[in-house]
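tool_log.txt
---
The assistant was asked to compare two proteins side by side. It first ran the structure predictor on the initial sequence, then on the second. Raw inputs and outputs are pasted verbatim so the downstream comparison step can read them without reformatting.
(1)
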Amino acid sequence: MQTSTIKRSSYWSRRVTPGKVLIYLALFVIFFITFYPFFYVLSLAVMPYDKFVSTTVHAWPNGFTLLYFQQILKDPKLPHGYMISIARTLIGASLNVVATCMAGYALSRKSLKYRGILTFLFLIPMYFSAGIIPYYLAIRATGLANTFWVLILPGLVAPMWLFVSRASFSQYPDEILEAATIDGAGQFHIFWGIVWPTSYPLIATLAVMYGTGHWNEYFFSRILVGENLYPATVQLYNLINTRTVLQGLGIGIRLEPQSYLAAMASMLILPILVVYPLLQRYVIVGMTAGALKE
């Protein structure tokens, strides 16, 4: 009995070391710092108005109500805005992933003619920008202004994710590609038949990053399209401004800014919080792909 107790104590002394305890404490602190803002926003979003005004510190939920969400959803423009956001995210992220992977695979092949020049051209937008006015004039000149595709096509390939995909594809075994070439397969067949089906971590990473960008973007959506194509982010922003103006005029709206804004933020945060954990392991693998060389 004493021998087993000693062995068990020795086992835990090897597994639980001061260094591991510090690491786990540091991870817990980091988790709390990053998670608590989301928890705080969600708790405010479901807190009744009387509970909100009766307490000075809102560190945790005090009561429960869905009134703010009901008030937001009463706006007839919001469902249409969410349909635009969903369509933009699904269609835009799909086209982004396909175009980025195709360009990244092409630039990863050493046999590509003018490979260095093309890489340099994609590198320029990462550090230089012409500004909002030239950007808008270029969009208007192409005829994309006030169309659904203006929300997708101008940012079809992001230079940062292009270089991530290029680094990932550069690690692809040349022996497999050479064998496919010897068998008579062309580059189009090699990419779609061999490379694409074996690149799910990279595809998931690009889908999450592009999808998050499409879902959260609102600045250019306000100036490039009309009201009939406003996504949910712009509709919620306009709803906030309208409510602020009505409060300033004293037209029968209670002053409940924090809870109301928290409910609006929650409606945009929740879809990301639901989708991202499902693809997290693919994102980690995709982000580290190409980081190490043999």
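(2)
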Amino acid sequence: MTDSLSILVVSSDPALSAEIQAALRGLDGARPVVHEAGELRQGAEQARSRTPGVVFVEMTTDMRALQAFAQEVRRGSPETQIIAVFRPDTFGDDVSESAVLIEAIRAGVRDFLRRPVSSTELIELLERSRETAARPLASDGRVVSFLSNKGGVGKSTTAVNAACELAVRHPGRVLLIDASLQLGVCAAMLDLRPETTITEAIREKDRLDPTLLRQLATPHDCGLHLLAAPRDALDAAEIDDESMSRIVTLARRTYDFVIVDTFPMFDRVMVAVLDLSDRAFLILESVVPTLLGGVKLVELLDGLGYPAGRTRVVLNRYTRIAGNLKPEEVAERLNRDVAHVLPYEKSVITCANTGEPFMLRSRKWFGYGARLKRLVDEIDALSEQAHPRNGAAVPAAPIIATNDLAENADSTEEFYD
């Protein structure tokens, strides 16, 4: 996940993936995530679902198959760069290697890598490819995920309210995906009764396009669209990491903003969502058991190579009572700044119970509403960072200093009605 770069290796020879992964050990810091496909058709499907930055495909003498593969990848994942890997003796003594390479370039191959794979050559190739591979298309929307280490901390409430506030600003351009597959509650919080869910989207994967995705999503009066969680555990079992990657990838090409509410369990589906997320908000409460779980989750994200700069810690339902951990104490234990503090407000829970999101009420200019608006401002700014006007560079939204949050938390007038 380093610098948004993921790699797909397409080869019937498992030794090629092993060579590439061994060569990647020469990279400084965390390494990109490597996926594998055993044949071209499977590779094209994975490229469409995962939109990797780079595809390494084993080159054979069958140039027509390579050309068909490259065309399929370009249709499904136009930003992916195709790198052909070959052995010098592949084509025989009577065939001009340069002529074959030129034909491969015409087929859509961007670069070449010789076997056995050299760590130096691979790293140089990735450095050439990194900037282009990591840059989103101009039409790509931003993906924001909300995650937690346990249930009951207000993750879904935060995701739904943030999505509603964003949709009020951008009607029809925000999709909320309820990826809490086993226990999704977003529809109930929005007082919606969806006729279709994410499972129908998976079942229609062969003909799924932006038009069909919008038809499968359930609209809300505020301008938000919801792709609801499966109806039951049996439907949820149909969804794996590859299908989730396909849904999120298509969603970001269909909507300007994609908000994903996740299930509080770290599995392959969660990794697939994070792999495509431009920002991940970690929702915590300032109680020791939840915080200890949060520490482990942060360590896990670091171990997977998920960039710390894309993670934001949100302290939810904060109250200044004796024994409650302060924001600076949470930051110290996590070894991460607390980006946002959302105060406890009883009416937020009441709204969740009645299916009327708090951020759609008029009284949102102080307390919880004002704080959540700052979080949404950060999400809103992601689009401008990705596509700055007039080509000007736009700095990332700064993380609010923990000390400032603690100081502002002293203002009970701002926190409570």
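---
observation on (2): The mean pLDDT is 83. The two ends are 42 Å apart (CA to CA).
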